[in-house]
Amino acid sequence: MDCCICISMPSTLRPPRKMLCETCYEGATKLKETLNGTKSNNNSQPNSYKAIERDDLEERLNFLSGFVAAFRYQMHPDILLKPSNDGPPIPAHKALLAVRSEVLKNMFESESRFKAPATEIETVWEMKHDELETLLEFLYNGVVSEDKMKRHVYALSLAADKYYIPYLRKICERHLDLYLCLTNALDILEIAEVCSYPKLKDKALAFIVENSSHFVHATGFYDWALKNPHLHVLITMAMVPKTKTKTFPF
Predict the structure, then answer these.
(1) What is the mean predicted confidence (pLDDT) over 1-29?
(2) Which of 105, 125, 228, 231 can bridge 98 by disulfide, Cβ–Cβ 3.0-4.6 Å?
C-alpha cells in the first residue's frame, strides 16, 4: 500500500492523499498519545501550583497573625496611645505603626519625646477609645469587621487621611460608596470632601441632587448647610441647569 508519509514522492499519489502504512500509523498514534499526555500534564500543573500557592498564602497569613497577638496580649509595647475621650491609653509598638504610616514614621523619628520609655509616653489622638482601638486592630491585622466599620467609618477615614494609610483609605471609600443612601448622603459628601475622595464626592453630590426634594426639607439640613457652606453652594449649582449667559448693552 502506498503511504502518503513514507513514500519518496507523495505528490504522485492521487487525491485524497490520506493512506498510511501500518508503521506510520502506529508512529502517528504514539505521537498523538505523547502530545495528549504532555497537554494533560500542562493543564494539571497550574492546578497543583495553585494548591501550593493557596497553602503558602494560608501559612503566611497565620505567620503574620502574630502581630495581632502582640497587640491583643500587649507583648513588649513601647508606646502608649491616649484617646481623646479620657479613656485608658492603649499600648502599641512604634515599629509596626511606623511601617503602616509614613506620617507616624516621620513623627517617631523627629520628635524626641517618642524616644522615652513606653511608660512615659502618652500622645493624644483625635479619636475616641473605641475608634482608636479599631484603628490599631486594622494596623496590626489589616481587617476591620463589618460592624466596627459601620460604627467608625468616618473616624477611620479621617485617620487614614491624616496619617496617610492608603489601604485603609481604599477600604473606607469602598464602604462609603457601597452604603450611600438618603440617611447618610450629606455626611458622605462631607467626608469625601475632607478626605479627598473625588469619585465618591461626585457620586454623593449626584445622589443628593437627584433626591433634592428629600434633603432640602430634611431635619438638620439647615445646620449642615451652615457647617458646610461651600458644599451647599455646590449642591445649589448642581441643581440649577446651566444656561447661556446673556449680555445686555448699557
Answers:
(1) 55
(2) 105
- Omega of the bond prior to 16 within 30 degrees of 0, cis? yes
When pLDDT is cut at 50, 70 and 90, the band that residue 10 belongs to is very low
The backbone region for 216, taken as left when phi is positive above 0, alpha when psi lies in -120 to 50, beta otherwise, is: alpha
Taking residue 38's Cβ as centre, other Cβ atoms within 10 Å add up to 10
The 8-class DSSP code of residue 125 comes to -
Residue range 202-208: mean pLDDT, rounded? 94
CATH 3.30.710.10 in the chain: give the residue spans: 66-164
Taking domain 180-240, whether its CATH number is 1.25.40.420 is answered by: yes
Q: What residues pair up with 213 in beta bridges, in sequence order?
A: none
Of the candidates 185, 176, 178, 194, the residue with the CA atom closest to the CA atom of residue 218? 185
Torsional class of 76: left (φ above 0), alpha (ψ -120 to 50), beta (otherwise):
left
Average pLDDT, the chain: 79
Does residue 235 surpass a pLDDT of 50?
yes
Delimiting residues of CATH 1.25.40.420 domain(s) in the chain: 180-240
- CATH for the stretch 66-164: 3.30.710.10
